[in-house]
Input
Amino acid sequence: MRRYGKHTDEDDIRSRPNRKGNRPRTNIRPKHEDAAEGMVLTVDRGRLTCLVDDRPIMAMKARELGRKAAVVGDRVALVGDLSGKKDTLARIVRIEERASVLRRTADDDDPYERVVVANADQLAIVTALADPEPRPRLIDRCLVAAYDGGLTPLLVMTKSDLAPPDKLLELYGDLDIPYVVTSREELEDGGAADRVREHLDGKVTAFVGHSGVGKTTLVNALVPMERRRITGHVNAVTGRGRHTTTSALALPLASADGWVVDTPGVRSFGLAHIDASRVIHAFPDLGPGTEGCPRACSHDEPDCALDQWVAEGHADPARLYSLRRLLATRERKEGD
Output
């Protein structure tokens, strides 16, 4: 027996009920045009603390973002519960395009790059003048990452009461890098923080340094405890309202319009993600000397024009040594 006639109508057709009670799947994703704008302050085991209208919001990444991860400094779009109340959770549905990216790898043999911070304007490289001894090659590697990621470098030298800064200043004098020299006494009375703060106003600055150089002490002087209330949700998953510099954390500057991003102390700064041909950009004092180099010069071969450039006194031989040490490390990695 025929159930329907020739001219069926939609009302004549029975629809099978959805037993699960959910909406049918679709490939059309919502645009979330009404999503609120925010900034990622810190990331802790899948939970992200974001700032929305001067209010800290706990959020998680939406499934539709796939493997794309949000990092400290990212500008994001959020939906859901944006009240910031305890035990509430919003969703990050969009990560905006990044203006700059500071990246590193664990070492030069590690193929996995790690994004340290996004959208930072400046990289403050903190180094002690003594205890521990300064590590110029680590500074050079940070400079490479800064130039490659679109950040302006700032050199901050601590513990000048233990050793003079003359040697480091001479080594980096030709690079025209802004710098600040501080001592332990100046950190205690606030004078050093004021001088550093002059370079940070209106900018997002990531602080990087070897363990023990006084980086966190400086950040604490720049951002007193009353300004840390804005990040009271840090480590909310564990119930702890403190930051132990085990992950990057963005903090608002006191008495200035800017942000400080405190990062964990580094033992090494791998550059596996950076092409060897771009390393020379971190050495602008050597750049003009490459004009006489042969095509595809590695800058570490007999015909390299940099040898003559340095011999004529245009640059410090130590700078050429640092460049070639970095290039040699990269070449060993690429040849494995």
User: Anything to note?
Assistant: Residues 148 and 278 are 7 Å apart (CA to CA).
